Predict the structure of Trophoblast glycoprotein.
Amino acid sequence: MRPRQEPGRPHRCVMTRLLLLLALALSCRCCPDNCLCSLETVKCQNLDLNAIPHSLPANIKSLFITGNSISQINQTSFPTRLENLTDLYLSDNEMELVEAGAFQNLPNLERLDLSNNRILTFDEHALPDDNKLKLLNLSRSFHNGSLLDFFPRANLLQLATLDLSNNNLEHHRLDGTFTAMSSLVTLSLRNTLLYTIENWSLPALRDLDLRDNNLKFLPSATLAEFSINRSLRIQLLGNPWRCNCIIDDLVAWLKNSTQVVDSDNLTCFDPEAMRHTPLLQVQQSQLECSNRDGVLETSYVFLGLVLALIGVIFLLVLYLNRKGIKRWIYNIRDACRDHMEGYHYRYEINSDPRLANLSINSDV
Ligand SMILES: *[C@@H]1O[C@H](CO)[C@@H](O)[C@H](O)[C@H]1NC(C)=O
Ligand SMILES: *[C@@H]1O[C@H](CO)[C@@H](O)[C@H](O)[C@H]1NC(C)=O
Ligand SMILES: *[C@@H]1O[C@H](CO)[C@@H](O)[C@H](O)[C@H]1NC(C)=O
Ligand SMILES: *[C@@H]1O[C@H](CO)[C@@H](O)[C@H](O)[C@H]1NC(C)=O
Ligand SMILES: *[C@@H]1O[C@H](CO)[C@@H](O)[C@H](O)[C@H]1NC(C)=O
Ligand SMILES: *[C@@H]1O[C@H](CO)[C@@H](O)[C@H](O)[C@H]1NC(C)=O
Ligand SMILES: *[C@@H]1O[C@H](CO)[C@@H](O)[C@H](O)[C@H]1NC(C)=O
Ligand SMILES: *[C@@H]1O[C@H](CO)[C@@H](O)[C@H](O)[C@H]1NC(C)=O
C-alpha cells in the first residue's frame, strides 16, 4: 500500500495546481469580446451572438444579452456557477427553447427578462428547484399558448411579478395556471385577447392588469373573487363592454367598489346606441336584453324544442292509429273506385262503337 502512495503525491500536486489554474481562468475578471463591462454589469447587446459568452466575470451581478440571435439556452449556456448574478436580460433573441438546467448555475437569480422572443418550450426544470426568482418577464415572448403548461409545474414560489402581456392567450383557459404562485403580487395580462376571467384565487395579488382584452362582462363569481382582498387593484380599460343585462353585476359592483383604478374611464362598446356611455353612468333600467340578445336566443331554442315535441307527438298519434288510418284510406279508395266505375260504365256505354253503329243502322 505505502510504496504506491509515494509516487502518487507529486502527481496529485500537479493536478491540484492545474485545477487551481482552471478555477482562476474560469473565475476571470475578463470581459467577453465586444461587450461592455463595468463593475458587476456586463452588456453584450446587438452583437449577433448565437450563444451566451462563457468568459464572464465571476462577480457579475447583471447581465444584458439582448438583441442577439440565441435560439436556445441549455445547461451548457452557463457552465460556471455565478453566485452573485441576480438580473438576467435575454430579450429580443428569437429564442425558441429554454431547456432543463439552463439556469442551474444561477442560484440567486431574481429577475429574468425573456420578453420579445418566440419561446416554444420552457422546461419546468430550467430553473433550480429552490430558485429565488421574483420577476419573470414573458411579454410578447410566446410562440403559442402551449407555454402556459409550464407554470403549474415550475417551482415559482417566490415569484412576485409576472408579465404575460402582448401574448395570444385567446384559446387558453387560465384556471389553475397561477395557483402554484402563492407570492404573486403583480400580474399583467394586458393585450392577451382574453375574453373571460374565471376561477382563480391569488391571495397575495395586489395589481392586476387586464387592459386591452376582449372582455364583454365579468361573471359575479369573478367579482366575488376580486372582492376577497380589497388591497387588489385592477385595470380594465380598453375592453369592449357589452351594456345589456349581462353586465348588470359588473356595473353594480363598479359603483360600489374602489378597486378598479380606471373605472371612471370605462365605456360601453355594445349596443350601438350606448357606445361611449360611461359604465358608471349606466342605469339599471337601461341594461335590458334587447331582441338581438341572449334572451331571444334562448326563446328560439325553447320554441324549437316545443315544435319538435309537437312533431314527435303527431307522428306517435299517427303510428298508434295506423290501423284506423289504413281502414280510412281503404274506404276512401273503395269509394273512389265505386265512383270511377260508375263513371266508366256510363262512358263506355256512350262510346261503344257497336251502339253507334246500331243507331246509324236504325237511322238507315
Ligand atoms: C445548447 O445551446 C447552444 C446555444 O446556446 C447550442 O449551440 C448547443 O448546441 C446546445 N446544446 C445542446 C446539447 O442542445
Ligand atoms: C458576491 O458578492 C459578495 C458581496 O457583495 C462578495 O463578498 C463576493 O465575493 C461575491 N462573489 C464573487 C464570486 O465575486
Ligand atoms: C417587460 O418587458 C417589456 C419590454 O420588453 C417592458 O416594456 C415591460 O415593462 C417589462 N415588464 C416588467 C414587469 O418589467
Ligand atoms: C404550439 O405550436 C407547436 C409547434 O408549432 C405545436 O406543436 C403545438 O401543438 C402548439 N400548441 C398549441 C397549444 O397551440
Ligand atoms: C375552479 O378550479 C378548481 C380547481 O382548479 C376546480 O375544482 C373547480 O371546479 C373550478 N370551478 C369552476 C367553477 O370552474
Ligand atoms: C390582502 O393582500 C395583502 C397584500 O398582498 C396582504 O398583506 C393581506 O394579508 C391580504 N389580506 C387578506 C385578508 O387576505
Ligand atoms: C358595497 O361595498 C361594501 C364594502 O365596501 C359592502 O359591505 C356592501 O355590501 C356593498 N354593497 C353592495 C350593494 O354590494
Ligand atoms: C380618464 O379620463 C380622465 C378625464 O375624464 C382623463 O383625464 C384621464 O387621462 C383618463 N385616463 C385614462 C387612463 O385614459
Observations:
- Confidence is low (pLDDT under 50) at residues 1-8, 358-364.
- Residues 175-176, 199 surround 2-acetamido-2-deoxy-beta-D-glucopyranose (ligand 5) (CB under 6 Å).
- The CA atoms of residues 69 and 93 lie 5 Å apart.
- The first strand starts at residue 36 and ends at 38.
